[in-house]
Amino acid sequence: MTAPSEGLAGVPERPVPGDPEAEAPFDPLKLCIFTTVALLGWILGPLAVAVFAVLGLAGYWRAHRAGLTRSRCILRDVRLVLFYLGLVLVAALAGIAWTVHGWLT
After folding, report:
1. Which of 21, 54, 72, 79 has the fewest CB atoms within 10 Å, counting from its CB?
2. For 50-59, how does the pLDDT look when each residue is reduced to its tens digit (9 = 90+)?
3. 8 φ, ψ to 5°?
4. Which pLDDT score, from 0 to 100, does residue 63 have?
5. Based on the number of CB atoms within 10 Å of its own CB, is 45 exposed (0-12), middle (13-18) or buried (19 or more)?
6. What is the DSSP letter of 70?
7. Residue-range domain boundaries for the chain
8. pLDDT by residue (tens digit) across 2-36?
9. Looking at residue 18, what DSSP letter applies?
């Protein structure tokens, strides 16, 4: 069963939530996101890694302060995820310093 598309021309009808026969096909959105992140990492190098590490740290820190103890991340424990992201940030900062040092010498 599908719901009408509210009169928008050219828009396919949407599946009704909870309808077993309206299983949506697999959407590989995560693969597109991973590709975009990898591209930014390739173009911006350690700066992109540092930015994403800071974003991850901020998000997990806020979630941890709100009471989150288990994550869907493969590391599971939020404290391990925070430690991992902190290590990635340190490595990114070292990479930035190494790159700037290379430019200056």
Report:
1. 72
2. 999 999 999 9
3. -80, 120
4. 94
5. middle
6. B
7. 45-104
8. 555 555 555 566 666 666 566 667 778 888 888 88
9. T
As given in the structure block, the two tokens for residue 65 are 């302060």
Residues 6+ apart with CB under 8 A from 84: 75
46-65 vs 29-44: helix crossing angle, rounded to 10: 130
Cα separation, 90 vs 85, in Å, equals 9
DSSP state of 44: H
- Give the three-class secondary structure for 99: helix
3-state secondary structure of 2: strand
Quickly state the pLDDT bin for 67 (edges 50, 70, 90).
very high
Measure the CA–CA gap between 68 and 59, rounded to whole angstroms.
11
Core vs surface per residue 16-25: b (16+ CB within 10 A) or e:
eeeeeeeeee
User: Using an 8 Å Cβ cutoff, are 25 and 43 in contact?
Assistant: no
Residue 102 tokens read as: 């290379």
Give the H/E segment covering residue 75.
Answer: none
